[in-house]
Write a structure and sequence with these properties.
CATH architecture of the largest domain: Orthogonal Bundle
Strand content: 5-15%
Number of domains: 2
Order of helices and strands: EEHEEEHHHH
Largest sheet: 5 strands, mixed
Structural class: alpha+beta
CATH superfamily of the largest domain: [2Fe-2S]-binding domain
Number of helices: 5
CATH class of the largest domain: Mainly Alpha
Length: 170
C-alpha cells in the first residue's frame, strides 16, 4: 500500500489492523487508539481519499490502497489548511482526538464539495456541492468524539477550512 504518498510493503499477521500497522510497525503515532471498536473516531485516516476508522480495517485488505494519516496532510513543513484552522481556532484541548478530527474534517469537506448528502442535508439529492452549515458540520463530524468538549471551536475550524477550500476551488 501507499502510506502518506510513500510506497510501503509490510509483512504482517493477517489479523493486524491498519491502526496497529501504522503505530507499531511504521511508527506513525499521530493516529490514536481510542476505543478500538470504531466508536470514537480517534483513529480516523483517509483511505483512497475517504475517511475510515483504522481500528476496523485489516491492513492486508488494503493492498494497493492509498492511506493518508495526519502526518501525511502537511507538505514541505506547510500545514494543511485544516491543520492550520484547528490551530487558529484553538480547536483542541488535550489533543488526543485531534488527528482523527482533522482527518475526518478533510474527508467531510471533500464529501460536501462532491455533493454527498448527510442526514442534515436539506435536499435529498443536492445539485453540486453541499453547503457546510453548522448543522452539516456537526452531523458530518459526529463520528469523532472529543472528551474535552472542544466542539464549538472544531466546528469553527472546519467551517473556515471549508470556506478556504471552496474559494481555492478545491
Amino acid at each position: 500500500m501507499e502510506i502518506n504518498a510513500e510506497s510501503c510493503a509490510l509483512d504482517l499477521d493477517n489479523r493486524t489492523t491498519l491502526l496497529d500497522a501504522l503505530r507499531e510497525h511504521l511508527g506513525l503515532t499521530g493516529t490514536k487508539k481510542g476505543c478500538d471498536h470504531g466508536q470514537c473516531g480517534a483513529c480516523t485516516v483517509l483511505v483512497d481519499g475517504l475517511r475510515m476508522n483504522s481500528c476496523l480495517l485489516l491492513a492486508v485488505a488494503l493492498d494497493g490502497a492509498q492511506v493518508t494519516t495526519v502526518e501525511g496532510l502537511s507538505s514541505d513543513a506547510v500545514l494543511h489548511p485544516v491543520q492550520q484552522a484547528f490551530i487558529d481556532h484553538d480547536a483542541f484541548q488535550c489533543g488526543y482526538c485531534t488527528p482523527g478530527q482533522i482527518c475526518s474534517a478533510v474527508g467531510a469537506i471533500t464529501e460536501a464539495a462532491s455533493g454527498w448528502p448527510s442526514a442534515a442535508t436539506a435536499q435529498e439529492r443536492p445539485v453540486g456541492s453541499v453547503a457546510l452549515t453548522e448543522a452539516e458540520i456537526r452531523e458530518r463530524m459526529s463520528g469523532n468524539l472529543c472528551r474535552c468538549g472542544a466542539y464549538v471551536n472544531i466546528v469553527s475550524a472546519v467551517a473556515e477550512a471549508a470556506e478556504a477550500a471552496r474559494e481555492a476551488g478545491r
